[in-house]
Every structure is written in C-alpha cells, then in structure tokens.
Amino acid sequence: MRTGDPDGVNLLASWYLENPKQPGPPRMLAQPAGGGDRNAIPLYDLPRQRIVSHLIKDMPLRVSALRTLGAYANVFAIESFMDELAAAAKADPVEFRLAHLKDPRAKAVIEAVAKAAAWKPGETGSGTHGRGIGFAKYKTLATYVAVIVDLELDRASGQIKVPRAYAAADSGQIINPDGLTNQIEGGIVQSTSWTLHEEVQFDRNGIQSRDWDGYPILTMKEAPTVTSVLIDRPNDHSLGAGEASQGPTAAAIANAFAAATGRRIRDLPLNPERVKAALT
C-alpha cells in the first residue's frame, strides 16, 4: 500500500474512513513474472501456442490475490492438459514431458522426482489409488519444481487423501538447504489444502465464508509425508523458491485422480461433492 498514491489505496479499512480513500484500480503486471497470467506460458516445446489474458476490472465481489497469484491455477491447467495430451498420444506422462522439453534443468527435476518416487512408466491406477506428476518453473524465472503424489480415493464418500508426495527442486546455488526444503514442502502441504478443501462460499448477497470455523482446511492428520530432492548448482545464481511448489502439486493431485479413475476434474477444489459428480 502507498498512502500517497493518487490512483488509490488498496487497504480495505481506509475505504471506510470519515474521509475515505479511493480503491486502487486493477493493473496488469508485466511478464515474465506476470500477475493473473503468471506461468500461463508453458515451457514445453510445442509448435502452436496461443495465450490469452483477460483483465476483468469490475468484479461483483471484492477479491484479492491468492498466494502465487495466477501460477497456481495456470500450472494446474497446463499440467492437467499435458497429461491429457500424453493419454491421447498413449505415452507415459513423465516421458511425454521429457520429450517436449529442451531446458536440461527442467528435465533434470522431472527425472529426479521420478527416481525418488520410483515412478514406473506405463503404471496405471487401480480405481482407488493413483499417481500423478506436475511440473513448473515458477514465474518462468525462479525455481524449477516437479512433484509426484500418491492419491487414495474413497469412492463411496468421494474423499481424497494424499498420503505421500515427492518433490525435486532446482533453485540454483543453494544457500540454506533447510530453508529451501521448508519452502518446497510447506508449499506442497498448503497446495494440498487448497486443492482438496479450500473454497470461499458466496451468493448474490455476498461472501458467506465469514470465519475460520466454517472454512475448510487441511488438518495435520491429513498432511502428506513429503520426500524432497534438492539439486544444487553452485556455479549458478540462486533462484527464488517461495511459492514454487503450489502449482505443480495441484496438477499432480488432479492427474493422480485421473490416473486412478479415468475421469478428469477441471474445477477446484476436488471436494467430495465434485468427486462424486465426476464418478457418476
């Protein structure tokens, strides 16, 4: 917030002063980091790409930024579709990604996470169990992350569990291994909560999610066990690692569900109601 900004102030309480401040106008943030379009441009070597960004200035509800801005949703969409393309090509999802990447560091994190998870090419789900992968280079200029999750599904209740996750990260030269591990693993746990549970409820009267008691969130008991592999590159610049694993985790969970069931869910969260609808 800049209190002297002539274009407005993005502090909610200031709008209700005796002499209220005016809200700041929506702005597009420049690529490559971007804002709502963050990570909308795939790293894959695809012959035809068309990326469209829509800035909606007048919203019916007051909104704010989700952590990672647009990266969470955009990586979820891109990596879900990469799995659909792999299925259409009758290719293994890991091998398909490797075949469409030129960046050796991108390939390295995918290969590293596949090794850590003992990924078996051509492995299929069982109807109640599945594995999925997601990959991204955060903001296209920060840490490379690949995530594989193991998913368990109770088809009767529609409940999804993610007991285990594996991650490989390349953040260039590693200064603080524990700090990097905490960022990657914390992002996976947070993304699992977003992807399986979290959703703000609203209707024509406004937002209905008013307190934390009624807002769904992952419990400690549900948090996945995470195995992380860090790729140190001491001759390269350090890369930003905050918020890098949320997008790949969401995609990995959605891809694991599709591997288990043969059904694709394209809306989040993957709550029991949405899961049961997909299964029927």
List the helices and strands and how they pair.
Layout: H1 71-88, H2 93-99, H3 104-116, E1 129-137, E2 144-154, E3 159-170, H4 177-196, E4 202-203, E5 206-207, E6 225-231, H5 246-261, H6 272-279
Parallel strand pairs: 3-6
Antiparallel strand pairs: 1-2, 2-3, 4-5
State the main characteristics.
6 helices, alpha+beta, 280 residues, globular, four-stranded mixed beta sheet, 29% helix
Structure, explained:
- This protein is α+β, with helices and mostly antiparallel strands and 280 residues long.
- It is built from 6 helices and 6 strands; from the N terminus they run H-H-H-E-E-E-H-E-E-E-H-H.
- The strands form 2 sheets. The protein has a 4-stranded mixed β-sheet with strand order 1-2-3-6. A two-stranded antiparallel sheet has the order 4-5.
- Strand 2 (144-154) and strand 3 (159-170) form a beta hairpin.
- The N and C termini lie far apart (47 Å).
- The mean pLDDT is 93.
Short characterization:
The protein is α+β, with helices and mostly antiparallel strands. The protein is 29% helix and 15% strand.
